[in-house]
Amino acid sequence: MNARGVRATAIAALVLLAACTGSSPSPSSGSPEPNGPFRTTDMAAIELTPKDAPPGLGYVAAYSGDQDIVSFARDATEEQHLVDDGFLAANGVVFVPADRVNGGKLTPRDPIIQAILVVFSRGSGASSTLRRYLDDLRTRQLPDTADGAAPGLGDESYRLEGTNADGSGITVFAWRRANLVLVLLGTSFPPPRTLRLAERMDDRAATAEGAAAASAAPSVSSTAPAS
After folding, report:
1. pLDDT tens track for 211-225
2. Please, where are the H alpha helices in the chain?
3. Confidence at residue 204, expressed as pLDDT on a 0 to 100 scale
4. Going by C-beta distance under 8 Å and a sequence separation of 6 or more, which residues neighbour residue 163?
5. pTM of structure
6. Which of 65, 74, 104, 227 is the most exposed place for a label (fewest CB within 10 A)?
C-alpha cells in the first residue's frame, strides 16, 4: 500500500495496524484474569473477517490480525498507559478496494474501513483507553472533528466526523461494552453503511457477553425432593 494507505491505516491512535504481524499472540502468563465478561478467546467471534467485506472492498491480510501490546502501542508512553489500563490483546482489520488489496495507489475518494477490537482486564481500563483515544483524535489527528449523535452501542458510545489530511471524509464509531473497546472507522465510505458494520460487531459482542453470563449463572437443580 502507498503512503496514503499506510496513513489511513494508522489514523486510529489505539493501534498501528501497519505494525501488525498477522499472528495470533496469547496473553503472557502474568496477564490478569479479566474482571469482566470478555476474554481474549472471544475476539475471534466478534472481529470482522474477510466475509464481512462490503461489496467492492477486500480484506487486507498484511494489515490485519491480532496484536500484543508491543505492536499495538504507538510509543512507550502509550504502552505504559495500556499496561495501567489492563490491556490484554487487540485485533485490527482493514478493508480497501478489492483491486488494491495487494498494493496499488489509493486516492482520497477510495473507501477504506478499519475495525479495532481490544480486550482489557476491567471495564474501567477499557473506558480510560477509549476516552484517551477520542481525545487524541479530537486534538491531534483530526483537529476539526465534530461530535455526532451517539450511536447507542454497548455501555458508552461516541460518533465523530472529520476530514483526513488529504481531504477524505472520516466517520468514527467508538464504543465500550464491559471490558471491551470497539472502533469502526469509515474513510470515504457512507456513514450509514459504516454504522451497520459497527452494529454487526456490537451484535456479536452482545451475543458473546450473553453467553458468558449464561455460563457464569449458577445451575438450578431440577431434582424433585423425595416424598
Report:
1. 888 887 665 544 555
2. 3-9, 43-46, 69-72, 76-85, 123-136, 191-216
3. 97
4. 142, 144, 169, 170
5. 0.82
6. 227
